[in-house]
Amino acid sequence: MEPNRGTELCFPHLFNASCTKTVRPYFTSILIYIVLSCIALFTTALNLLVIISISHYKQLQTPTNLLLLSLAVSDFFVGLLMSFQIAFIDGCWYLSDLTCIITYVLDYIITSASIGTMVLISIDRYVAICDPLHYSTKVSPKRVKLCVFLCWLCSVLSHSSRLKDNLEEPGRYNSCIGECVVVINYVAGIVDLILSFLGPFTVIIFLYMRVFVVVVSQVRAMRSHVASVKVQGSLRGIIKKSELKAARTLGVVVLVFLICVCPYFFVIITGQDTLLSPSSAAFVIYLFYFNSFGHPFICPKTLACTDRSGHWGQ
C-alpha cells in the first residue's frame, strides 16, 4: 500500500514495507524531545542518589527505607527505559526487533515490581501505625529484604513467561518495518490486569483507609488525654509524631503513584487505547513514567526522619 502524499516514512528506502512517521510541527517536536530528555535524565540521576544514599549509609537501612530503595531502583531503570521511548515518540522504532521486545519485557517487570513495592510500603505503614508496639518484631530488615526479593522474582518470572512467544520470535506481530509491537493473549492480559492493577490498588486503598481511621482515633485519644500526657510525659499506645509524618509522606508517594498510573490502566480496562490520538496516548504513557520523576523529591523527606540508630526520630 502506498503512503498518502505528505506523510513521512520511517525508512524511505523501504518504500513499500516501511511504517509511517507521526508528523508534528518542528518546534513542538523539539520541545517534546527536550522536556522528555530532561525528565529522563533527572529521573535517572536523582533516583541514583537515593540508591547511593541508602546503600552507603547503614543507619538509613531501616525496613521502610529498604522499601524506598527498591522503589528507587525501579524508578532508576524507568529513567533509562525512557530514553528508548523518546526515540520511539515519532512512531518509528529504529533498533532491532529483539531490542524492542526486551524493552517491553523490562518495562513490564519494572512496573510490576514498582507496584508490588507500593503494596509493601502500604503494609509497612499499616503495621507501624496500627500495631506500633510489635512493629520491630513483625517488620525486620531481613523480612523486608526477602519480601522485596520475592516481589522482583515474581515480576521477572510472570512477565517473562507471559511474553515468551514474543521473545522466541521478535517482530512476529509487526505489520511494517519500524514498528514495535508485543501481543499478550486475552487470558494472560486479564490475569496481568488483576495482579498488576486491581488487586494491588485495592490492597493499597484498603490499608491506607485503615491507617486513616486509626490516625483519626489516635488524634482524638491524644486530645482527650492531653492533660494526663503533660503530667506523665508520654502516653503508651499513642502513635509517635514521627510515624505520623512518615505515614503522611509515604501517603503522598502512594497518592502521586495512583494519579499517574490510574489513567494508563483506565485506558486499558475500557479499551480506549485504539481510539486515542497519538498525542493523547503519548500523554498517558509519559504521565505513567512521570511518577518515577517525582519520587526522589518526596523520598528525602522520609529519609530525613531517620536518626543515626536507624529508628524514626522525633
Termini separation: 69 Å
Low-confidence stretches: 1-6, 231-238, 303-314
Mean pLDDT: 76
Oligomer: single chain
- Fill in the CATH topology: Rhopdopsin 7-helix transmembrane proteins
Overall geometric form:
elongated
CATH architecture: Up-down Bundle
Describe what this molecule looks like in 3D:
This protein is mainly alpha-helical and 314 residues long. The chain is built from ten helices and no strands. It has one domain: Rhodopsin 7-helix transmembrane proteins (Rhopdopsin 7-helix transmembrane proteins, Up-down Bundle). The chain has helices at residues 26-56, 63-87, 97-130, 135-138, 141-162, 164-168, 186-224, 226-232, 241-270, 278-303. The longest helix is centred in the middle third of the chain and has 39 residues, at 186-224.
Keywords:
314 residues; mainly alpha; Rhopdopsin 7-helix transmembrane proteins; 10 helices; disordered N terminus; GPCR_Rhodpsn_7TM; transducer; trace-amine receptor activity; TAAR
Topology summary:
Elements: H1 26-56, H2 63-87, H3 97-130, H4 135-138, H5 141-162, H6 164-168, H7 186-224, H8 226-232, H9 241-270, H10 278-303
What's the gist of this structure?
With 314 residues, the protein is mainly alpha-helical.
